[in-house]
Design goal:
Layout: E1 8-14, E2 35-40, E3 43-47, H1 53-60, E4 69-73, H2 79-82, H3 85-90, E5 99-102, H4 110-117, H5 128-131, E6 135-138, E7 144-148, E8 151-158, E9 164-171, E10 174-179, H6 191-197, E11 202-206, H7 211-215, H8 226-236, E12 240-244, H9 252-265, E13 269-271, E14 277-279
Parallel strand pairs: 3-4, 4-5, 5-6, 10-11, 11-12, 12-13
Antiparallel strand pairs: 1-2, 1-14, 2-3, 7-8, 8-9, 9-10
Helix pairs in contact: 6-8, 8-9
Zinc ion binds near residues 78, 80, 180 and 181.
Length: about 280
């Protein structure tokens, strides 16, 4: 008897970079900041906790898997990647057993950094209210993070102000590589990041800028152009590329234009939107 293949689902809850961008011109792509999830049976892996994670919380209230094992992987601590975290932690049941992974910064551990986000007078409920139920794990770029026999996570250091890490998860059905905040050097693609993404089934890549913006006023801000994302997908031999971390000023129509131009470089390019759901 053939075993049925395990369903592995990837969903995008927030696809915007830097700051939320709600409004009539972003309604198709979405205005929430970065959050991507991968679910395989009882295992729920979440990448970043931008405002999009609050959509995940709502979804989980009626999701078919009632109480999955929850792991949250943080790329770094800039606002757009942790904005939704206090609300996520306080959502019913979400902090319970939550494993959080992230880098230490300036001698501060993950929980010490996140406690600052929820400290008075910035937020009314301190992290310690829920942190007893959570587990905090310090990781460094390059570290492997084994999950179970079927899921393995690896990491890679990104080129971004104050540092960031990318995550790649290998599942029996394929691999997902999440590169949210990375600036390729002007002289060419970062070889270590190309190697990190090599052969991935799905790559989610920072595509915040146009090539012109990246070479000009936004140089050094720690992000890629959509053109570099497409070139990386081609160089790394990936199956599907999802452009993400869209600039908050980019409208739905402008992003459609970006998509068409990126497909000229790498035909397997798609736009990450808040309604994107895919199977590995
Ligand atoms: Zn960001």
């Amino acid at each position: 008897m053939a075993l049925s293949r395990v369903r592995t689902e990837v969903r995008f809850w927030g696809v915007r970079g830097s700051m939320p961008a709600p409004g009539p011109h972003t309604v198709r792509v979405g205005g929430n900041t970065t959050c991507v999830s991968l679910q395989m049976d009882q295992e729920l892996l979440v990448f970043d906790a931008g405002t999009g994670i609050c959509r995940l919380d709502t979804f989980m209230q009626t999701a078919p898997v009632k109480d999955p094992n929850r792991r949250l992987f943080l790329s770094h601590y800039h606002w757009d990647h942790i904005w939704g975290l206090p609300f996520h932690c306080l959502a019913p049941g979400q902090a319970n057993g939550l494993e959080v992974f992230g880098e230490a910064k300036d001698g501060l551990s993950v929980d010490q950094i996140l406690a600052k986000q929820m400290a008075a007078p910035i937020f009314p409920v301190p992290l310690e209210t829920v942190s007893r139920d959570m587990h905090f794990n310090t990781v460094r770029g390059g570290d492997p993070i084994p999950v179970n026999a079927d899921l393995a996570v690896t990491t890679c250091t990104m080129r971004h102000p104050q540092g960031a890490i990318g995550y790649r998860v290998q599942t029996p059905g394929g691999s997902l590589c999440v590169i949210t905040d990375h600036e390729h050097p002007d002289e060419g693609l970062s070889e270590d990041v190309v190697a990190f993404a090599r052969g991935a089934t799905v790559v989610v890549h920072d595509a915040q800028y146009s090539p012109e913006e990246k070479k000009g006023p936004k140089k050094g801000w720690g992000h890629s152009s959509w053109e570099e994302a497409a070139r990386l997908a081609k160089a790394a031999g990936v199956e599907r590329l999802f452009l993400s971390h869209h600039d908050p000023a980019r409208t739905d129509d402008e992003l459609q234009d970006v998509l068409q131009r990126a497909r000229e470089v790498f035909p397997g390019t798609e736009l990450a939107t808040e309604s994107t759901v895919l199977e590995l």
